[in-house]
Structure prediction request, 229 residues.
Amino acid sequence: MDLRQQYYLQTIGIQRWVLRQQPESETEIESPLPVTTPVSSYASLDWDTLQQQVAGCTACALHASRKQTVFGAGNKTADWLIIGEAPGAEEDAQGEPFVGRAGKLLNNMLKAIGLEREQVYIANILKCRPPNNRDPQPEEARQCSAYLARQIELIAPKIILAIGRIAAQKLLDTDQAIGRLRGVVHQLPEYNIPVVVTYHPAYLLRKPSEKRKAWQDLLLAYHTRNMQN
Ligand code: URA
Prediction:
């Protein structure tokens, strides 16, 4: 680990000694969980057409209150796909995911494992901002799921990092608590892609004492990625 990475670790509140932990010892491989079935009408869309479909989407009521859709951003051939919950006010204004305070912490979390934001792809469960940042409603997530499924197919990442409870539960189609979902390597069965769950950076900003666990999650994801070809 170089000095820059040590610096980024410091900024996310991680003591250097934590690096000596071996995540494998805490890792168990869970049996596959179901994932939302992609809607076939999107199954052959290329990036541009998919992005146009999202930009014009009126499938749920969120289209009425959004400033713009937030499709996703980053490297479309990335090994790493980061999936959050939904755009907030700043993302709605700028049209890009994770650009607010939580996004800055996410950038530093990625840097701590040697990744620049531009190297990964970042997307959300929802492409539109829920008013007052409320949780996504089941129907909104259902309507949006085919867009994310197609993004996953197009990127074909080596690993997915699910950021926060909502992203983890929607992606893995479970209502298990995030405390039970993290620390385990899940699989998206249809895609055979490993999924690691960690806390949302907005939660970590409110509760910095949980950053140590998030660091363990990042290490788990890092090692899981490195075990792929
Ligand atoms: N929180 C998320 O989950 N996604 C964003 O894009 C921004 C904040």
